[in-house]
Amino acid sequence: MKTSELLEYLSRDDKWYLGGGKALVWAPEFPKFLDRPGFWDQAYYLDHAICPVFTFSILGEDYEELHTVSSDRVWRPDCLTQRYAADGNIAITERKCVTPFDALASTLTIENKSREQRKLDVILWTAQPIGSFAGHPFYNAVTVSNPLPADDGIIVFDHMDLNPKDMKLQKAMAFGADRHPSSHCVVASQLTGNLPEWRLTPFYEKMQHGAMPNSVSTSGVAMDLLGIPDRTLVYMGLHFRIVLGAGQSESLTGGMSVAPERAGAEEALLRSVRGSKPAFELARAEWEGFFSKVPMFECSDPYIEKYYWYRWYGIRLNLINIGAFNLKHPCVGEGPNPYYFRRNISYSAQCHLMECRWMNTPEVAQGSVLNFCDNQNDSGLLPASIGATENLDYLIYHSNWGMAIEELNRVHPDTAFLEAVYEPFKRYLAFLDRERDCDGSGLCDVANQFETGQEYTSRYVFADERADEYSWYDLSKNIRLKGVDASVYAYDLKRVLSKMAALLGHEDDAQAFESAAEKTRVAVLEKMWDPEAGFFFDVDRTGEKRSWVKAAVGFYPFMTDIASEKHLDIFHKYLFSPSEFWTEYPVPAVSADDPYFNDESEWKSKRHICPWNGRVWPMTNSHVCEALARASIHLDPELRPGAAELIRRFIRMMFANDDLARPNCFEHYSPTTGKASFYRGVDDYQHSWVVDLIVKYVVGLLPVDEPRIIVDPLPFGMRRYSMSGIPYKGHEIAVSWDEDDGMRLTVDGLPAGRRPTLGRLEFELPSSKA
Q1: How do residues 237-289 score in pLDDT, each as one tens digit?
Q2: Which CATH fold would you assign to the domain 3-290?
Q3: Which residues in 10-78 belong to E strands, given as ranges?
């Protein structure tokens, strides 16, 4: 497969999400106006919403709007193509995209299929609210000011949003087209129905004698009839005259850009709609360029192959690369939606390091860590999430920073990067020791149900029957639970900090961290492992009483060297048991025999947004797949078929109704039916790692510290696979398998290993590049 073929390979007719790889995405959760030209449903700039964006109205010779009827839609990562019919003989093709300059652009190609000349007036317009908009929880939350037409026919204005947590974001926006308008108008209105309907606009009456009045007026009493201030719509319209002879067509591109400052917004729009290439070609080139930066992969399993490429689409869709505000480094948002997900979130950042390390350069993976180092608070706490201008810096998410940094450095060794993160993570570990291991047990406490990222589950009922009533906004009410996941993460951080310290010449630190890691390892084995039950359990605040809850985090010690051969029966007794975790769609967050287990998103009889009492979460699955795969490689090869099967079933679950054309990634799924949390409206949720599982366990490339290549794939039963362009310690690796040709390894284009059967290959790298 060629890079140029991937966009078409991923095409489908049931998606609409678009992103440009910077700060702006168009991913409305529950869109109402997909069948309308333009972008009337909301867009998201970092963690803030812009609603609406803009639309087109096409007027006939009587200045009445021609009703457009959508006939079909084709989505690709770079472009959403829609076709419309209007007035019996007008055909319209629209290409929507987000350009690499943070502009939403729509190109209309209008064709006159009649035998007569048609004189049409196209109005590109928006209605920006002042005060609030539908779905925004606060009055007086949005301001729009200084909408001024520039000499180039572009309208530039300032936009400030206070989202639900009073996070101010001052930004500038530019609005215009690929040519100067014939006329324009900017006018304020008291609040009315803000719908993409021509007759609701002031322009409907102002469009006299074939033109707008070329006026700007945003003054007046800013109060609605109920006395609520600042309930205003600012209408901005640009008018274009199009004359089409019989059979002729003409294209018009309109757009809206967003940037921190006015000059940047205007430049971004001009580059997007008045450059040497159409906007949709700019978007296509950037997407193809992104795909060229990741390993090329093909295999005989169509689901694994499709999901590999779909996951890279999801990563770029959620990419944040603006170099401004609190996010100075590139990173990946947890999801495309504002306020909570389109941020650098510590719980999911571990996943982004694991996946983005396979890009040909490490900037995105490293940036996902460096943003947290930049925003660390004085206590050593790393924020739970980093937004454009506000951080969730009174709360942590427990995350496996140690493993993620170690794995990244194995692929892209970088001493300077390790030096940059060493002191911040040393301070963070001191915070954990002080605040989450107050009794010096070596185990790590969970202080509320949110900081594990796994709320509404019986894990916390064990600690406090009212744990689900405590808000993360009021930490005066908290719990204390020594968590398996939190303790495994703390162990890995101590272990990796010891390695980093030794590498950087801090011998005293290296010994101290090594001793601390050993203390945690012993504590997990002595306190959390129940030899009678054969499972790793959370422990109460005293460190003496084990929980009764069998949670999926009980498998996490196998991601490390904490667990050994003596613990392996946990997989046969629990993971592979249909009455525990081996459900129709494994792995539920808690065992199926848990008294609080529910497979339909209900917690205590109410459907919840983020329940962890029985749903299958891709995040948990990534961890359990990793744990089982590592155990199969290092402890018991008889587990290898089961590890391959779990990874395969995990990937297949993320295809709606097993439809090869419809991959996705939702927050959680039913362990019984595989049905996804469609009700959340959150597609393409980047809260797990899958690319990394494919590279390591399907292709078989297992990164290590030493300058050595180890390839040891799990038995997926494939007839063939190939992956090329894999970055590894400064080299380019390719691995292939074919039933007829055997297994091949190349390094920098040269043969480095071959065998006739699927199995283990090793190759010592030249030390100069490692």
Answers
A1: 999 999 999 999 999 999 999 999 999 999 999 999 999 999 999 999 999 99
A2: Beta-galactosidase; Chain A, domain 5 (2.70.98)
A3: 18-19, 24-26, 38-39, 43-45, 48-50, 54-59, 68-76
